[in-house]
Each structure stands twice: as C-alpha cells, then as structure tokens.
Amino acid sequence: MDIDRAEPHWPQVAAEIRRRIGSGTYRAGERLPGTVALAAEFDVSQSTASRALASLRPEGLVYVVSGRGYFVSEAAG
Questions:
Q1: pLDDT of residue 65
Q2: What single string gives the DSSP state of each residue in 14-38?
Q3: Residues 37, 16: contact at Cβ < 8 Å?
Q4: Is the Cα torsion angle 10, 15, 16, 22 positive or negative in sign?
Q5: Which Pfam families does this UniProt record tie to the protein (predicted)?
Q6: Global confidence as pTM
Q7: Cα distances (Å, whole numbers) of residue 74 to 27, 31, 45
Q8: Using DSSP, how many helices (H) and how many strands (E) does the chain show?
C-alpha cells in the first residue's frame, strides 16, 4: 500500500490494518506487527504507526497487552 503524502498518514495506515483484519490476514488472537515494523513497512514515523493502532481500539478491533503489544480482538474475527 502506498501512502498518499497529501493526506494524514495515520488514518491510511489504520485503514490498511482494518482491511487486513477484515480479510483474515491478521486473525483473532494474533499479535499485530509492532510499531517499528509498521513504520518501516509504510514508511511513516513510529508515532504515526502507534496512533493508527491506538485508533482501532475504540472500534473493538484490537486490544493491547502491556509489554507485549497489540492483538486482534476475538470480536474482530
């Protein structure tokens, strides 16, 4: 996925993660890639990747385990 540099980056990254969860690329209970990996994949900052992941929490798509990272919610699968 190419980021549209004219638009805010974090919603685009969040949309791609959301799409991957919906398509089954990331399955329920699976640990998501960390912010360093996501930042490298999408060529964005770590804070952008973190904001994208955090934005999916209120939707119930992901949850965080302190010290371990973000995981796909069972409800999302």
A1: 96
A2: HHHHHHHHHHTSS-TTPBPPPHHHH
A3: no
A4: positive
A5: GntR
A6: 0.93
A7: 8, 12, 28
A8: 3, 2
Of 36, 41, 10, 11, the C-alpha closest to 25 is 41
How many whole angstroms separate alpha carbon 50 and alpha carbon 70? 10
CA atoms of 70 and 66, how far apart (whole Å): 9
What tens-digit pLDDT sequence spans the chain (77 residues)?
889 999 999 999 999 999 999 999 999 999 999 999 999 999 999 999 999 999 999 999 999 999 999 999 998 76
**Closest Cα partner for 32 from 67, 74, 70, 64?**
70
CA quadruple 19, 22, 25, 30: dihedral positive or negative? positive
